[in-house]
Amino acid sequence: MAKAERFEDLTVWQDARALRKEIYAASGQGNFTRDFDMRGQIRSAALSAMSNIAEGFERGTNKEFSHFLNIAKGSVGEVRSLLYAAIDEGYLTQPQFEKLFAQATTVSRRCSRFITYLQTSTKRAPAPDNLKT
Length: 133
Description:
By secondary structure, the chain is an all-alpha fold. The chain has helices at residues 11-26, 36-59, 62-88, 94-120. The relative contact order is 0.20.
């Protein structure tokens, strides 16, 4: 297993970053741009997921990293819930919704697997990065 030297090396962070980018793009189009509350909320949740993964990594202990991964996972859950609201309001097409939902689900699963790894590992964080979905 390769050891991640920086949070940027983590696949889970890279996936969260990609999700944030896609959420910003989707929420910057059409009627979505006029719904300031929903647009701000979904962007904030996506940004929070990415940021909490990075912050947890930098804390340096498995316990703290797990805690921040749990927060990131919660933020990704918020993104998924807001995606339903966005499609209900007609802000997203079905293909857009499905793509974003799949990305969010992947990030959530990776967070879960990383949390499990950290809780059972005797090694000090940062953990290996080959934890796949």
